[in-house]
Design goal:
This is A/G-specific adenine glycosylase. The structure is a single chain. The chain has about 290 residues and is an all-alpha fold. It has 15 helices and 2 strands. Strands 1-2 form a two-stranded antiparallel ribbon. A hairpin with a 5-residue loop joins strand 1 and strand 2.
């Protein structure tokens, strides 16, 4: 959208709130952007298979789109449906997830697949409140799955949607709470085209990342991600790669291999055992579960 049009939207919203005319004009502009500049070639948008959409949405929770674009087709080829994922050996699952980060998502995704098979006969439920109770699926992801898999007219906010609404309607507000955004997101929703509408908002939000200072810094919900270098996340990833490669060892040898203190590594190993990644043998050596 042009700066002039954005300024007009802001002025109209400040003067009269979210009127019907403003909603329609905003919807038209967002969908025009999507029609001409949307990311229509992303593989997870080509089919509305619920399993594939679950996988893509979990991947996209904490991994950038270019990385998911590489990893997603490989993962789907190896684990094409809920049954294949549920039956996968954990070592194969975690090996396939390498490069995505936040490896707990892979374990939760497998637990989700097991529950879908056991509790729902292999058919993913459509209701967001049911989806939200599945492992690794919170309120926002449950709604994104409902919208993209089933075209359900749900109302939710994620980082790109938040960026769009703050930029277009709260440019002069120092701190914006999601509670202020939800009524606008609901008012602007295209109920019969929820899937495309949210794709359009997310694509527009992604485009804003490179064209304006990040509006999300003014969100009350904004949290800056901690640095990866030297973090426990980095150590966890290094330990997992070692054990997946077959380099079993006790906490002392593993600490030396990853270049962290024995006390720190021992605590991380205990945590990863509790989370289901590793088991400790009687000899003291650790291995992937």
């Amino acid at each position: 959208m042009s700066p002039r049009l954005i300024s007009e939207f802001r002025s109209r919203f400040a003067a009269s709130g979210m009127t019907g005319d403003l909603v329609r004009d905003f919807q038209n502009e967002v969908m025009e952007f999507y029609d001409t500049k949307g990311r229509h070639d992303m593989e997870w948008r080509l089919r509305f298979d619920p399993y594939r959409i679950v996988v893509s949405e979990v991947m996209l929770q904490q991994t950038q789109v270019p990385r998911v674009a590489v990893m997603y087709p490989r993962f789907i080829e190896k684990f094409p449906d809920f049954a294949a994922l549920a039956a996968a050996p954990q070592t194969e699952l975690l090996a396939a997830w390498q490069g995505m980060g936040y490896n707990r998502r892979a374990l939760n995704l497998q637990k989700l697949a097991v529950r879908v098979l056991e509790e729902f006969g292999g058919v993913l439920p459509e209701e967001p409140e049911v989806l939200a109770a599945l492992p690794g699926i919170g309120p926002a992801t449950s709604c994104s799955i409902a919208a993209f898999a089933f075209n359900r007219p749900v109302v939710f906010i994620e980082t790109n949607i938040r960026r769009v609404f703050i930029h277009y309607f709260f440019s002069d507000t120092a701190v914006v709470d999601d509670r202020d955004l939800f009524p606008l997101v609901e008012a602007c929703l295209l109920p019969d085209r929820a899937r495309e509408w949210y794709w359009a908002l997310m694509d527009l939000g992604t485009a804003l990342k490179t064209s304006v200072p990040n509006p999300n810094r003014r969100s009350r919900q904004y949290v800056k991600q901690a640095a990866f270098e030297g973090s426990d996340r980095q150590v966890r990833g290094a330990l997992l790669r070692l054990l997946l490669a077959g380099d079993a060892g006790d906490s002392g040898s593993l600490a030396k291999a990853v270049g962290a203190s024995p006390e720190r590594v021992a605590g991380i190993l205990d945590e990863m055992c509790r989370e289901g990644f590793f088991v400790q043998e009687e000899s003291g050596a650790y291995r992937v579960r």
